[in-house]
Design goal:
The chain has 240 residues and is of the alpha/beta class. It has 6 helices and 12 strands. Helix 5 packs parallel to helix 6.
Length: 240
């Protein structure tokens, strides 16, 4: 691993990354801009195990140059050796590959860097802030944190998307994407202080575009005073 994948591949090799070849077995369009694939894992899950919000790096060809993007595993099944991937489609080589993917197609996959630490103490209330790109991770998180109530701020169009929210304990607050994420930041700042005031051990999880994620993470930690270990923030994509 590393040969033919430039400096990124070389760095991952030095960090003892594990490589696998996975094969598409099923493809479907969930909406016009969201596509779901099912793949055999090439031995990946048996070798690495499974944890909530687990993600892998997929390698694509970008005009003759290697390009890697990270995607969250959907419904990984170690016994069957399969997992799903869901793609929010836009411009780029990863989306181009997903649009054209069909059963029998293969993709190179690297596992390195993924991990999950259960919040301790367990959250009395989960606040998840995401969008279509982080939707698989939001779903995984909702399933991982048991019976904790949750408020999900979801940016962008969600019609038809597989958001696995339980109406009995998960509230979804939908926010249109406007002004490069500024509308979401305003909504969270308006709503979050009241939410946090009503709970003792909150856990705030943020995964939007990089600029929005950075702004919200800073606000939650500095302005609202949420402890660093009770906040997880990761920029999932860069707005252009």
């Amino acid at each position: 691993m590393g040969q033919g994948r430039g400096w990124e591949g070389a760095v991952l090799r030095l960090m003892s990354a594990k490589d696998f070849t996975c094969t598409v077995t099923h493809a479907e369009d969930v909406t016009a801009h969201y596509r779901r694939l099912r793949l055999t894992d090439g031995g990946l899950l048996a070798a690495t195990g499974v944890h909530p919000t687990m993600w892998v790096r997929l390698w694509f060809d970008d005009a003759g140059r290697p390009h890697q993007r990270a995607y969250t595993l959907v419904d990984p099944d170690p016994a069957a050796g399969t997992f799903g991937l869901e793609f929010a489609l836009h411009q780029g080589c990863a989306s181009d590959w997903a649009r054209a993917a069909k059963p029998g197609d293969t993709v190179a996959v690297t596992v390195q860097g993924t991990g999950f630490r259960q919040p301790d103490p367990a959250p009395s209330h989960l606040v998840a802030i995401g969008d279509p790109a982080s939707l698989p991770a939001v779903n995984s998180l909702l399933g991982a944190l048991g019976t904790a109530p949750a408020t999900v701020f979801f940016e962008g169009t969600a019609d038809g998307l597989p958001l696995r929210a339980d109406p009995a304990r998960h509230e979804v607050r939908r926010v249109p994407r406007q002004d490069s994420g500024a509308r979401l930041v305003e909504r969270v700042k308006a709503d979050l202080p009241e939410l946090l005031a009503a709970t003792t051990d909150p856990y705030v999880w943020i995964a939007c575009d990089t600029v929005t994620t950075r702004a919200l993470s800073s606000y939650v930690r500095k302005d609202l005073g949420v402890a660093r270990h009770r906040v997880h923030a990761l920029g999932y994509w860069r707005a252009t």
